[in-house]
Amino acid sequence: MRVSPKKQLGQHFLINEKIAKKIVNSLALNKTSQIIEIGAGTGALTKFLIKKNASLKLIEIDNDAIVVLKNKFENTTIIHADFLKLDLETIGFDNYAIIGNFPYNISNQILFKILENRNSIVEMVGMFQKEVAARICSRPKSKKYGILSVLMQAYFNCEVLFDVNSNNFNPPPKVNSSVIRLTRNNVKELSCNHKKFIQVVKEGFGQRRKKLKNALKKFTNLDDSNLRETLSKRAEELSVFEFIVLTNKIFSNS
Fold first, then answer.
1. pLDDT tens per residue across span 140-188
2. Residue range 19-37, pLDDT digits in tens
């Protein structure tokens, strides 16, 4: 059975086996032997994943792809579900790796899902639109540094591994792609409230051209003299640590 890529699912099937193998081999697997593949499609990555000495589970939403996967990989667990709606605790893995060629139209949502499950995810190797990948891994004082950069780097070490041209897909996307790796760092919990941290980061970058004293005006505890230097900066100038300090200062009296 041949699976036609579905535009509504954002499907662009990887057709270059060398790149597929390179993506799979980018998993370190030095802290886990459990892997979840998101959006397995027709099995471009799965073909190489099953050669790893690991427990593998596939998540796929497309009915047609499910049929192909079952025929190709009879002894592999295939979960027919929408990853974004799936409770990952029901999968039965504890600490695991995630891998996938992610649909560009839901890549941000996938990242936030990974963030929610950060204490169970050891590493992630994934394909993203090149610009999104750059944002995730950008450092402070870069124009690409933003909300995703701060939130993901708070809990993961982030690195761009390599780029992939659009002609390696069927159908070719209109953008180029990059493969990145996120490796869970040693921060179990931030030294500030996680939800308030997200709130401050989002507000700070909501008006990124403005200095933080203006971008964060909705918060009432901004009159601390120790904050003057920080508030004179723009959000893109602050490191993860500085956002943590800022969050604690803002909510110290709340």
1. 999 999 999 999 999 999 999 999 999 998 777 788 999 999 999 999 9
2. 999 999 999 999 999 999 9
Please, which contacts does 21-27 make with residues 24 or more away whose CB atoms are closer than 8 Å? 21/48, 22/162, 22/179, 23/99, 23/101, 23/125, 23/127, 23/179, 24/48, 24/49, 24/52, 24/99, 24/125, 26/125, 26/161, 26/179, 26/181, 27/52, 27/97, 27/99, 27/123, 27/125
Q: How many domains does the chain have?
A: 2
CATH code, 69: 3.40.50.150
pLDDT the model gives residue 254: 54
138 DSSP assignment:
P
Amino acid at 120: S
Instruction: Show the domain range for 203.
Output: 194-250
Q: Determine the 3-state secondary structure of 245 from DSSP.
A: helix
* Cα angle: 244, vertex 248, 251; to 5 degrees: 135
**Sheet containing 177-184: order of strands:** 77-80, 55-60, 34-38, 96-101, 121-129, 177-184, 156-164
pTM of the shown model: 0.91
Residue 49 near residue 42, CB atoms below 8 Å: no
59 neighbors 39 (Cβ within 8 angstroms): yes
